[in-house]
Task: structure prediction
Amino acid sequence: MLNVEPLENGTVIDHIKSGKGKKVLEMLGISELNVGRVALVMNVPSKRLNKKDIVKIEGAFVSENQTNLVALISPNSTINIIKNGKVSEKRNVILPKVLDGIGKCPNPNCMTNLEHSKMKFLLLKNEEYTCHYCERSFNAEELVRN
Amino acid sequence: MDLISIRDLDKKEIEKILSSAEDMANGKPKKKHDGILATLFFEPSTRTRLSFQSAALRLGMNYIDFSAETSSIKKGETFVDTIKVISGYADVLVIRHPKEGSARLGADVSGKPVINGGDGGNQHPTQALIDIFTMRKIKGKISNLNVSLVGDLKHARTMQSLVYALAMFGAKITLISPKGLELDIALVKEIEEKFNAKIKTKNDLVFDDADVLYVCRIQEERFADPYEAKRVKEQFMIRNEHMKNAKKDLIVLSPLPKINEIAEDIDSSDKARYFEQAHYGVPVRMAIIDYVLMK
Result:
């Protein structure tokens, strides 16, 4: 078993769909944050998911708005905020109601793909998103596939 | 305000526009404007462009016209920059563009009201308002009217807007299209849930119970096989022989242009009301211009 030492202060993103951990780091822009060490452990055995990825970020308490973006690619992920070696907050990720400036419209005929303008998607009742511009609906993962 | 999608309007707002259009049709515009309307058409148009220009003139406005072929778009100027510039020249903009979402993007960057004159296969809300106006004017109501929508329902932007408005007003809708050219299932579900609409779908050209037959073009360019395109076009051409079992007071409407969708012998029939429908484009668009400027 590959062991990563426990965090004293930081954020643990657990129950990430296996293989999506790298994408989670990209989405959160972790390389751009002023954080300490970052661990990505892939293919960890899991009772619930069979296999999962885990991300540990040292020294940064990632905000709810930011971690909710994880729901786009791994809706069952959980967030643990660690302070002084203890879990101070536990939360599930939920799909953001509005995605502003995030993702890319999968419709090749959408104007945003011609002008490369800022994107906006609105969450629908069925957990799909509609493009503010072309009005087509997509599942969440399609928007952040590339 | 902008008018980009039929989803931007509720029933009350549509009623208000239709009522104002009725006044305009009767030569009683409530409010004259003295500003400038800009028509920005990045793809061809006859009815939408000219009826908006005519509407502006009849409201007492002037218009300026933009053509992508002779503009700085040819030099590589972006759509967004073009809209920002022209927003300084006019008081209201009408945009048609082949890309979906273009009008919304234009509205986001323009400080002036924007009206969508058709954005790719997405929306054509002003056409839907003309269609609803025509149906109500001739039939006296929309609620419980049997409306059959025929043709390429998948790609026609007119249908995307019209089916939504019809469902909002409680019409009984039948969708008749060739296989593979059916209306987007997500839109059908949306209007069924939102308006409790009962939608029937067919692949055969049978419309015995219809009060209104609304015909749009089969877009030949969408077919990979030209023979299949020809076969489907012939199969879906509305001819007098199809009228044998039709209701006596059936009316035939179309957003036009009609190429081969409607046989010429229908033109002379009293069922054909599509030219009258095209003429209503002026008062309805007068009402729309008035609405976006006053809101």
About this structure: Residues 1 and 30 of chain A are 26 Å apart (CA to CA).
